[in-house]
Write a structure and sequence with these properties.
Layout (H helix, E strand, L loop, with lengths): L1 H21 L1 E3 L1 H11 L1 H22 L4 E10 L6 E4 L10 E4 L5 E14 L1 H68 L5 H36 L7 E3 L3 H7 L16 H22 L4 E14 L12 E11 L7 H67 L5 H36 L5
Parallel strand pairs: 1-6
Antiparallel strand pairs: 2-5, 3-4, 5-7, 7-8
Length: about 450
């Protein structure tokens, strides 16, 4: 019996340990770090950088020596016949003899080395590949910022749902106690039935809200898991507290951060877009320049009427060739000029877009700072209002039980309290989210 009990408790302990290990726990910073490594969008952005690096080398390699080889085998099923004047062979003038030149079968093996000597478009392509890599890195940086903000929002929504559930459950407990006490008083004939009914209405409403918040809580966890790159049904636990996290995210110094738009990721992206358009204009201009390529090849050929090319005594004839190819564009009926002008127009448009981006970023930064400052101020106001609403509700409870306040007055005070509770929770979430928004716009992360 003793051994069975030991085995039973060992199994229970193993199950508990397994369950604890199966749940993943995250502070907000842990969640951000995890998402930056496992979020699917982030992983694809990293792959884009690797692809850009490969493309850069692909472009570079196209201007380096290229070696190719070819092997040809030909077998005439019926050889072509040529006719030549018969007098070449001592025949009569005006007559022709039929002759066949060459052998029925032949084999050739050649290797060729090619090298660009001058090509303006290749130089531009190298510069474009470098800019394309920078664009991919910018996209990764922006993705990381957006993922970080999404994690903060998702984390805050889970905490909001958890706090809402906790508050609603406490409210239900208080209401049920009040309802029981009021019912007893009613049964003794000291209050009207309406007082009981008012409390029942309030209790039903709060229970309905709790059911809805519980469903939202489940969805908030699923969104949080998806943002981190986890399965949406993964068991996760959040270690931070909403109010503590709000306090940590109150930073007046962030409002004093320089609004240098050149440090923002959106400006970098717009700037690189202008560089791309400038390179496209340069590419179109380079098409009017001559191109010069060199090559050298060498190989062997063999001929016979039978397939003897694998025999050791088959005779092979060697040959080699070196040369250059110069291509000079002369006249394109205005096509090159039109494409150059089009590239110039696109460059001018990108410069306008860059200026527009600068103005938008200045506005976004100013707006984000204003919203963050308001969120911090609103948090303090809502915190004070909640304290006042709690005291008012408690006083009305006492007055109601003593017969000094009506059920309508109590319900009004309770409704005001519940509203203040939700407003306070939302104010805390706004502080966290608006700080994340400002940090994203500024490309500044303050942990």
């Amino acid at each position: 019996m003793k051994n069975k009990l030991i085995l039973f408790f060992s199994l229970i302990s193993s199950i508990v340990v397994f369950s604890q290990e199966d749940n993943q726990s995250f502070t907000l910073q842990d969640a951000i770090d995890y998402a930056l490594e496992h979020n699917r969008t982030t992983k694809n952005a990293s792959r884009d950088i690797e692809a850009a690096k490969k493309q850069k080398w692909e472009t570079t390699a196209s201007g380096l020596p290229q070696i190719s080889a070819s092997v040809d085998y030909q077998n005439f099923l019926k050889q072509q016949v040529s006719v030549i004047p018969a007098e070449f062979f001592g025949g009569n003038p005006g007559e022709f003899n039929e002759v066949i030149f060459g052998t029925q079968q032949s084999a050739n093996a050649f290797i060729t080395l090619r090298q660009k000597i001058f090509d303006g478009s290749y130089i531009v392509a190298l510069q474009s590949a470098k800019v394309f890599l920078e664009i991919s890195e910018n996209a990764k940086e922006k993705t990381d910022l957006e993922v970080r903000k999404a994690v903060i929002n998702a984390y805050g929504n889970v905490l909001l749902a958890k706090e809402s559930v906790s508050i609603l459950e406490r409210n239900i407990g208080v209401l049920e106690k009040n309802l029981n006490e009021t019912t007893k008083i009613f049964e003794n004939g000291l209050v009207e039935e309406e007082s009981v009914e008012q409390l029942q209405i309030t209790l039903t409403s709060v229970k309905s809200s709790l059911g809805n918040v519980l469903r939202l809580k489940a969805l908030a966890y699923q969104m949080f898991n998806m943002t981190l790159g986890l399965d949406i049904n993964e068991k996760t636990e959040l270690l931070d507290n909403l109010e503590n996290l709000t306090t940590e995210n109150i930073s007046l110094n962030l409002l004093e951060v320089s609004s240098d738009i050149q440090n923002t990721i959106d400006y970098k992206i717009a700037k690189n877009n202008t560089r791309v358009k400038a390179l496209q204009l340069k590419l179109e201009k380079s098409k009017a320049l001559p191109t010069l390529n060199g090559f050298i090849n060498g190989g062997y050929s063999a001929f016979n009427n039978e397939f003897t090319f694998a025999d050791a005594n088959q005779r092979w004839f060697g040959s080699s060739l070196v040369g250059v190819n110069l291509n000079i564009p002369i006249f394109s009926s205005g096509a090159r000029n039109a494409s150059t002008q089009r590239a110039q127009i696109n460059l001018e448009k990108s410069l306008e877009d860059l200026t527009e981006t600068e103005q938008k970023l200045k506005f976004q930064i100013a707006s984000a700072k204003s919203k963050y400052q308001f969120a911090m101020e609103d948090y303090e106001n809502k915190k004070q209002n909640l304290g006042l609403a709690e005291r008012i509700e408690q006083k009305n409870q006492v007055k109601f039980l003593e017969g000094l306040a009506s059920s309508f007055d109590l319900r009004q005070a309770q409704t005001q309290l519940y509203s203040s509770q939700q407003e306070f929770l939302q104010a805390m979430l706004d502080v966290i989210n608006n700080k994340a928004e400002l940090e994203t716009v500024l490309n500044t992360v303050n942990n």
